[in-house]
Write a structure and sequence with these properties.
This protein is of the alpha/beta class. The protein has 25 helices and 16 strands. It is globular and about 90 Å long.
Amino acid sequence: MSTQNPFTDLTQTGATVDFSKLREIYKRNILKVVNKLKGRKKSLILDKKISAVLNQCIQTQTLKQHGIDQLYYLEPGGELDASVDDVLFFCRPRYEMMKTIAEHVLSLRDARRNLIRSVREQEQKMTSVVDIDEHPDVAPLPTMTVCMVPRVTSLCMKFLENLGIRDLVKLRQCDINFIPIEPDVLTLEYESAFREIACEGHNMPAYYVASALHKLQRDIIGLVPLVKGKGRLAKDVSEIMLRLRREAIVEGEVDMIEPGEEAGESLVDAIVLLDREVDTITPFCTQLTYEGLTDEILGIKNGVVTIKLRSGDEEEYASSEDDGEVGKSPKKIIKSRLSSNDILFKEIRDLNFGKACSVLRDRSTEMQAHYQALKEGKVEDQNVSEIGDFVRKLKGNIGGAGLDLHSTLAKTLLDKSKSYFFRQKLEMERHCIEGGPIDPVISQIEEMIYRGESWEMAMKLACLASQTYGGLPEKKFDSIRTDAMHAYGAVGILNSIVLETAGLFYGKESSAESPNRLAYQNVKKPLKLVVDSVSEESSSDITFAYSSSGYAPLSIRVIQSAIRGSWKHHEETLKHLRGGELFELGQSLNEYGGAVQTSANYHSLSKKISLAKETTKSSLDISGYKKKPVVLVCFIGGVTSAEIACLRQMSKSNDVGVDFIVSTTKVITGENLLRNINQKEDLGIYDESDGDRGVPWSIFGNMNLAKQ
């Protein structure tokens, strides 16, 4: 495993806002929970879905210093060490976690009861009135604590009560919200957010996002004067933020800090809230930035790409989601962390893949030329510091790091992207985006299903086609659903129902009454979503991230509209998109110190943008340089790496005059978004090897399958 530092450096030169304080806050919150455990020997049992969060907040060595002796993943069927004094379960408030915890707790309790019974039988004191849970010669149960992140929910408390362990465990909560994974990217690591929003109609993600934004303003950036957004959940977030501010005042919570250069000035000038429902097209297009393509093809899990070296000196990269193929034992496994700590990765991550390859080629040629010059020169003529610099540079680019790592990654991605099936998929995406004939797209979807592609891969193209063509022809729509059922089993038709409910996959006739069925076609020209000529070498426009189709991400076009002033100037165009009405408001205090929302005021933001455009960093008078205004864009439901790359490119452009910070529920791809929607696990449909985890099947009662 790579020994790279898991913490991304958040204090890099040029960072708009320093979020390193967040890690310190979360570290204190974690240690506060750990230090409440009074035993001498302690075990920490981690929910796998939260391990990445803890890795970004606290190091294992620190936990050991505070008494954590053992650390395990929370999985069904395992056995806990009964000899410890304290067991701390650290998890998200989810049903399957509560059920797994109950299995472990009841297993320990039953094992102790059996031991007590055995001891009493040996003592010949077994009667019907003795306490089966107490015996002086049998050690007591460990003190068991369930800590939920970010809070304990009433639903989980009810689950624990119904599972019979509410009285056997203590409950704690650990307030961890936005995790800074990069200097300009914050994430909740809330991967089920989009499914809960689009498929289940839950409002819980709105509360979590609002709470995180409220605490971010309270602890780091100050009260942001302007909030605007688009989408049902975005509107809910703004309303919950107001409620939380009012509750904080009543409860005597610490006031919003005033961190700006001037008194009362926030470090962020505006917040733009955007539902993923507003743009569900972009995630289903293949990202062609270096980082985006790596995520699409190999999979980046918790910031790590997994490299598996096979026998025969053949390098094979496997997705971070997989554990390898049966019958192929990897000779060596290397896990490489991809973050801005890697200077080369920081330089090329947001470039179009073709341009990134050119940069890597130039770097390789430069290093070879430097080496050749040193090799051919006379030792006495060579400067010791020059040789030392080259050796240090060489050391940082070999052994699976720097140029060595990224050259191999680029070669793997290049080989994959040259395959016929990959090229065909890009061609069909171009058909969808440009509005070409639909028949080849339908044929490609059917071929992918027949060829045995994963459900996620096949339905990714089907969802894109549904939205860009305003629905699939009804006969073809029914045919694809039938093929999906035959290829993927009963879960295939259930998934089709869920996708249809979410408005991602539908036919023309079945969705004829939907007001947003033709959303893409209505906004394609006004928002310039398709650009005719795209250069892979140029990053002047946001289409560089999707150069194969010339697609400008819809979400980014909406954000560009947001920073140009009031929504009123764009209302006629944006009303066609999903997600409800647009809104814009100000955040402030009234004369009595109460939290209020006011009419949006763009005077300050517009003035700062104008000054930033007039003054560039190349000005001779550096003291006269005006700092760009900062806009925090919050994607509720997930954001892709390519969208982040587009916002970073806009931040670098003097024509935009704004620095962007991205916050989101999760960094996603279209494939893992669909993987999270897939009902196979959540509806209790498992392979025999997985076993039945007992998720209630009563949920099927709400689904009308007769139509199928």
